[in-house]
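Worked Example 4.2. Consider the chain below.
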Amino acid sequence: MSKKAEDTPMMKQYREARESLEEDTLLFFRLGDFYEMFEKDAERGAALLGITLTKRHDMPMAGFPYHSADGYLTKLLKGGHKVAICEQLETPQTGKLVKRGITRILTPGTVLEDQQLDAGHNHFLLAVDFDKQGARASWLDLSTGKFVLAQSDRPHDFLSILSALAPREILVPEGMKKRVQNLDDGGLLVQELDRLFTGVTRTERPDFDFEHRSGAREVMESLGVMNLEGFGIGLDHLALGVAGALLIYAQDVLKGKPGNLRKIEEYRTGESLLLDPATQRNLEVFKTAAQTRKGSLLDAMDQTVTSAGSRLLENYLASPERDLVEIYRRQSCVGEFAQAPSAVEEVSSILKSGSDLERILGRLRNRLVRPRELGGLRSTIRGLPGVSRCLLALGERFPAIFEIAQRVQTFEELCAVLDRALEEELPADIKVDVKGEGGRVIRVGYDSEFDQLRELGSGGKRWILELEASEREKTGITNLKVKYNGAFGYFIEVTKANLHLVPAHYVRKQTMTNAERYYTEELRQKEKEIVNAEERAVAKEQELFLSVVELALQQADALTQTAHVLAEIDLFSSWGAIMRDRDYCMPEFVECSQELEIVQGRHPVVELVLKQESLGLAGTHAFVPNDCLLSSGQEQIALITGPNMAGKSTYIRQVALITLMAQVGCSVPATSCRLGLVDRIFSRVGAGDELARGNSTFMVEMNETANILNNCTSSSLIILDEIGRGTSTYDGLSIAWAVVEHLHGQGSDGPKTLFATHYHELTRLAHSLPRLRNFSVAVKEWNDEIIFVRQVTPGASGRSFGIQVARLAGLPDGVVNRAKQILSTLEQGDSAPLPTSDSPPADIQLVEDPKEPQSPSGEPLSSSKKEKKVKSEPSQLELF
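Applying the procedure from the previous section yields the following structure tokens:
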């Protein structure tokens, strides 16, 4: 942006601030009571915010009152934009250019204010780098201080956790894309990364920001430590470079080091159950196919009453455990809370009345110091004695709850200080104002000096009111007023009609259109006393407020630890309520086992939807439960056939979700559940294309299938639904046949697999693959109708009833009837279709070869011989 010779001093100040920023960052420039944008920023900002674009001296301008900034900032940040705030750094004085400077740059991944944060979700800023050495990543939530780094020599393993994190902004080194493309599978990895971060603000940073040695130094300086051994991290950790890049960027936007970082954690892919991005989508763990939280597993498992509890649940689902000690700890807490419903109700009521302690401390430590932050801190710690007392009262009968209750610190001394110091109702901010109309933050009686100063100010105002009444009586001017103006101070205002009554000792101060303004020597002297007292009172109040903030921050580490404990109490107690209210069981883990046994399992989301829809409706049936038995060395592959709409997809997904819930540490929807630890869950279900990336529906299916086959182990759980349906029948059947054989393998074990299919020919594999078992979803035939009973039973199914389902979907009768004619012709091996009732297209050939189709093993592929009308039970939903 070039400087102009005619620029005013203020515009020179603006240009200096603007030139220090990246081109895509909007600058909000404070001018008095407004934030203004100029030139290109004004044009862009006006379009994004829907505000008026004006011009002055041919310069585009757009602005809004400063007190409206939060709404505009939130809109820009949600749109993925960055905003710099240039504030006035001193009190304006007549005839002097006020000093200004950029105090903060807000980006989607670094916001701290409540209005711009999603309360129930972590707000991660992520940095990643990929090359031939592998993958490195680090993520930081500035609002809570959560700081993690990770490395892996298997880049695809990283996609699982990165997808679950759902970062708001991602930092990448400038040269990363080229390095990724040079990897063996770089093209596919680039596509996966692009898909993963579609819609996420992406910021490129210089490669040197990611340098390992400087990154280690940045991390140690930010944490205030001499080394990282106390966190179990060596200085040779490859991800320290990306962690340092995060911190450099955070310092740039905060205009100072993050103040709430106290530890750094290492995420190890081998210590967590991994779900790749496709599996997270297919199982709808965090969001549904419609991209909504409602209807997801996360939503079904979330009965927390605090934002911190909801975020903890999201973290657990993003990184399910493989550590049995931690799983057992969570199970013990959940199981005990399930037996203490009155305690759950009491604790939930207390927690609900508090505030988000973790994020309040994040703002205070990062220099966003406002009275309501301390008010939220006070409201939360007021409830801590009640939480502690309630849980400790459960005694030795509940040892897990007793242990967690002992970690709740009550901070009674700090609470007493906050009660004495702060008003009950607190403003959003302390305003520095010569009229003294700010804060009302410090309570009367907390500090005697401040009380005296405030009394002087309020006493002066009383004197002004008394003066007004006295002057009206002396002069006979009934509408005489004593007023205050920031530019002119106190004055006596008299309308033009009463000027003849003005006493001689009044001194004219200002002439108005309809009035004159005066002062007296007595008023001028009193004004000095009042303004001096009010300025001193405002300064004293700020001093006292900051001292209370400092007192609270002295205990910030202990408060943060207690915030984590409260989040666990909220989550575990809510899971206890779910276990009791929904009749869930606690799964049993069998060490060194590769078995999975579920008795009467249910789908956690579908069952909940059915219950909600059945409230108040007579005759509505509950979810139909089913068993599952899988073993890597025996019943390894369950091949499931059956009609459309019978529930195959629901069944295989519920097995995967129950396994996931078990390793999160939650109870599960089943009568009983026994399992060994699973290292990964894979799924390939549904159909969807990525045409913008050049991937057809079938290519997406094959990409996901290839990922499964290349990365699964005998400790994995795989669910596959309709493999090979995106291409021709023979190609699809051949691929499905080969996939099953590959999963079975020639060894003694393999990944536990649920394989749902309409290729009934695959059921013959049970004769050649010893660890494959056939199952089907049963139907009942009655009065020439078929009713789905949603029961998975041993044995193969013989038909799919697709035409009947098409009728249920509303296809015209003519189309349905014609489809049945064509099906009958195909089943008889005829090369031409039966004629329609209108005109017989005798020359149409459905297949080129009239011979019976063959399976990959050379056996004939047969179809069902007879179709019946189908009736679907209205009480059971098929949502997948």
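The two ends are 55 Å apart (CA to CA). The CA atoms of residues 640 and 756 lie 5 Å apart. Compare this with Example 4.1 before moving on.
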